[in-house]
Amino acid sequence: MRADNPFRRLPAVNDILDAVTVQDLTSRHDHKLIVAAVRAELDDLRQRIQRGESLDGTGDAEAVARRVASRVERETRPNLRTVVNATGIVLHTNLGRSPLAEEAARAAYEAARGYLNLELDLETGKRSSRQSAVRDWICRLTGAESATAVNNNAAATVIVLRALAMGKEVVISRGQLIEIGGSFRIPDIMAVSGAILREVGTTNITRLADYERALGPNTGALLQVHSSNYRISGFTKSVALADLVALGKQHGLPVIDDIGSGALLDFARFGFEGEPVARSSIAAGADLVLFSGDKLLGGPQAGIIAGRKEWIQKIEKDPLTRAFRLDKMTLAALEATLRLYLNEERALGEVPVLRMLGTPLAELRQRAEQLAERLRTLPGLASVTTAEDVAYVGGGSLPDQSMKSWVVEVEAKAIGDEEFARRLRLGNPAVMARLRGGKVVFDVRTIFEHQQSILIEAVRCALEKSAEQGSFREKER
Ligand SMILES: *Cc1c(COP(=O)(O)O)cnc(C)c1O
Hints:
The chain is elongated. The protein starts with 12 loop residues before the first helix and ends with a helix. It is 41% helix and 16% strand. It has helices at 13-18, 20-23, 31-50, 61-75, 102-113, 135-142, 153-165, 186-193, 208-214, 241-251, 278-283, 309-317, 319-323, 328-340, 344-350, 352-358, 361-375, 417-426, 452-464, 471-476, and strands at 83-85, 146-150, 169-173, 179-181, 184-185, 196-200, 219-225, 255-260, 288-292, 303-307, 381-391, 403-412, 430-432, 434-436, 439-443. The chain contains 20 helices and 15 strands. It is an alpha/beta fold. It binds pyridoxal-5'-phosphate.
């Protein structure tokens, strides 16, 4: 009778610990974690026996060991994983906005793993400012007198408003009181900075006279904010930066221009109209221009402040500048990205955001067709088709200007689109696609060329079974 007791037939903890598959884990994982995983797997089996289920070989020591191994891998998996961006959205905030150029990524890597002259003048051997890494490059690229860089553009805005207008009124058009997302709202930012919001004009119309009427003894600055993520169209009027600058000069007031995306070259070459370029803003006479490092500039997350030296010096003395300072990896990546822009051709060829925006439609079509052809060899797909489509830049940039692109649309035989997409998200690497009309849609514009094979493998894994995540990446190594 005893021998028939199914609980008795379960392998012992030690048998599983001795299995080769589990032994392989011991070099990388904590012993206690492995033992806990063994116990958890055995508990599962006991519960199944209790429910009267038959174990059908799943209770063999080797089978349990395999499940222990995948449980341990699952429980120690990093939370941040590589994602193949098949959404077509170039600046996808949820996917880390702009990918870095190889050169910038390498600079960050080298900075991360060793020492560098972050705050050291190698000539004199004396302490220096970490801003020397980027200051001159920003000046050369924007025409500004001086510059500094902080954690992001939100931080830059707070710092600038504090330095120039704490306790004073900052005049801004009602049409520019925007929310960027992630609780960045101009009125809230203004409140945090200690400046007093003085809104003028209406949502759609603001005239120079509106600004003029608002000026008084307690005015600290004039602020222009690029309405990055929305557009007012129809009956509208706004004041040109040059006119704002003239008004500021007349009254001895600084003009701050938050251009948002930080284009360093003219985006008309990609068919995008009206995107402000940092250099033009400085040329028009703005005292300070603010922009992000990881939007259209295509670098790491940063907030760049360029403009008059006296203001930059004041800003750098503010304790908030210290609190929002950039780390060595970001500074290294930012410097490398800026240096690419010294030669526009190099920037266009090597900064991924610019490359993706600049890929000709014919080439995208070719890539879509090639991807489709390879996907058609997978047995689990019911249909694979290509089509022309549209996508947006994203990241709160150019909201009303779509781009043509090419996509591959797939349908699985055995699972629906939602389940298919879920498995793709949980794979290794994860794949983010669009869903439309019951199909999973891959936009090739944002898929790096070297990722095509990885994507196909990810699709194959998703079609086979989701649970064995991570298997093919392991094999690759
Ligand atoms: C995106 C944006 C910001 C915020 O920049 P982050 O770098 O994301 O902090 C501020 N102002 C404008 C106009 C923007 O477009």
